[in-house]
Amino acid sequence: MDGSPLLDLLTGLERLAPVEALKASFIAYPVINAAHIFAIGSLVTLVLMIDLAVLGRLPALRSRREFAGMLRPLALGALALALATGLPMFAIRASEYAFNPAIRLKMLLLLVAAINLAAFVLLDRSARTAGDYPAAAKACAVLSMALWPAILLCGRFIGFI
């Protein structure tokens, strides 16, 4: 240990028994990695479908709100799987990944996406009686359509920086 509390913590995380077992397994890491890619791909697709519905870009839908409401739990499930698989992947090289600019940008964009989602929910709830999504909620959908692919792209750069 070099005396930096953060680096000591990250190095300690890398040496936990489950993390060491993950590093040593021929099967576990590729399975977790594949599950992470599946979860992120599903999440981005579901979010984009929800955003397109909010924006009225899926004209064949009978009810945009029902469609978005139906996809939202699936998107939350995909996010949960992405987090559950992303954390072990981070843990195997925590002391390296914590200082990787791509993962730092990814975490920042995730924070912005979470704030954007919270803003969308608040804006939509306050104007729900109006029927259509309010313009500010639609602006959140447009921002969401930029954020989630950017998060995906940052994730792909983590291994190359």
Succession of helices and strands: HHHHHHH
Bin the strand percentage.
under 5%
How many strands, which pairing sense, and closed or not: the largest β-sheet? none
**What value does the average pLDDT take?**
93
- State the separation between the terminal residues, measured CA to CA: 24 Å
- Separate helix tally: 7
What features would you describe in this structure?
The chain has 161 residues and is mainly alpha-helical. The protein has seven helices and no strands. Helix 3 runs antiparallel to helix 4, helix 3 (28-54) runs antiparallel to helix 7 (135-157) and helix 6 packs antiparallel against helix 7. It is elongated. The chain starts with a helix and ends with a helix.
Considering the chains and any ligands shown, give keywords for the structure.
mainly alpha, 78% helix
Summarize the structure.
By secondary structure, the chain is mainly α.
Strands, helices and their partners?
Blueprint: H1 5-14, H2 17-24, H3 28-54, H4 64-91, H5 94-97, H6 101-126, H7 135-157
